[in-house]
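This part of the workshop introduces the protein records we will be handling. An example says more than a description, so a record of this kind follows.
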Amino acid sequence: MKSRLVASAALGALVLLGATGCTFISPQATTIEYSASDGVNISDADGPLDVRNVFIVANEDGSVGNLVAAIVNPTDEKATLTITLAGIDPFAVTVPAHGTVSLGADEEPLSIVDLDTKPGATVEVHFQSGDGSGAKADVPVLDGTLPYYADLTPGGAENAPKPEPAEEDESEEESSH
């Protein structure tokens, strides 16, 4: 009788371990960091500033673009972020202590002339703040097809590409009548 009780307890423990054992070796999805929007996040470990959701909205041929981002300064002193793209003069953005500068929302986006990157691609951008060496990131280049990016297109919403309506299938049209 006692051995039967021990065997059923061991079997129960084995079933419980088998049903939950995979959670011991699988990574938790909630601990994986990712960019939850179209842009990317950059954290310069050497510098004081963080860049959130950075992306570029470009015109159709990719010759001009607007850099959009939120730049966060969690420190007690104002700090400057230097943004560099190959072949283009660097940009400098100063962020007040404990402040955020939202390029494309509260502030004008940074206009990049001679971008030479079409929407759908990425462009390498270097972000540097403080005394650190900075961080490089492949920043996505988007167009203004989506309504919430239309106003961010160089030249405004009137220059944004218009989404084309989906073509209806003729067989669906006939069956609906």
The first helix runs from residue 2 to 20.
